[in-house]
C-alpha cells in the first residue's frame, strides 16, 4: 500500500509557515490600528493626554484604544484556535500515517506466513511442484481486502471452493451411472484444471492414475489451507470423491 499524502513533519512545516505568515500579517494589522488610533488622538483638539497612571487615565486610555484592543483580542482568539486546530490536524495526520504503515506491515507479515505455510505443505507432497502455484494470486483471492486491513474471507474464494465441489459432484454423478470403462476421465481432468486456475494453480493433463495422485494431494492441500487460514462457517468442506 502506498500513499502520496505528506508526512507529519511535512504537514507541520506547512502549518508553521502558514501560521507564521498569518501571524506577521495580523501583527501588522494590529500595529497599524494602534498607530492610527495614536495619531488620531495626537491630532484631536478635544483630547489631551498627559503622562499618568491613575485610574481615570487608564480608563480613558483603554476607552480610546478600545477598537485596537478588540482587534488584538480577536487575533489572540483566532491564533489560539489555529494553533489548537493545527495541533489536532498534525496529530491526526501522524495517526493516519502510522495506521497505514501498520496495515501494510500486517499485510506483508500475513502473506509471508501464508507463503511459508504453503511451501512447507508442498514439501510434504511429492506430486506437487512450486512452479505450478501462484501463491500471491491464491492469497489475494482469499483476502481481497488485506491491503486495506481486512482479513475477511472473500465471497470470490467461497465461490471457487463451490466450483471445485460442483466439479467433484459432477464427476461423482457420472461415475455412478457409468457402465464399466465408460467414465471419461479426460473430461474430468479438464473440469478440474478450469476450476483450479482461479487459485493460481496450473494443472496439465496426465495419465489417469498420475492425475488422480496429483489431484488427491492438491485437494488435501486446499483442505489444510482452508482449515488453517479460513476457519469460517461460510467456507464449505471439499466433497468426497467417489470416482477415485
N-end to C-end Cα span: 44 Å
The largest pleated sheet is described as: none
Structural class by SSE content:
mainly alpha
Radius of gyration: 37 Å
Strand content: under 5%
| Average pLDDT number | 80
**Shape, principal axes of CA atoms:** rod-shaped
The number of strands is 0
Low-confidence stretches: none
Order of helices and strands: HHHHHHH
Q: Helix segment count?
A: 7
Share of helix, binned: 55-70%
Q: Keywords for this structure?
A:
244 residues, mainly alpha, 7 helices, rod-shaped
Task: Explain what you see.
With 244 residues, the protein is an all-alpha fold. The protein is 69% helix and 0% strand. The chain is built from 7 helices and no strands. The chain has helices at 8-42, 55-64, 66-123, 135-142, 155-177, 185-196, 208-229. The mean pLDDT is 80.
Offer a quick outline of the entry:
The chain is an all-alpha fold and 244 residues long. It is built from 7 helices and no strands. The model has no long low-confidence stretch (mean pLDDT 80).
Blueprint of the fold:
Elements: H1 8-42, H2 55-64, H3 66-123, H4 135-142, H5 155-177, H6 185-196, H7 208-229
Helix pairs in contact: 1-3, 5-6
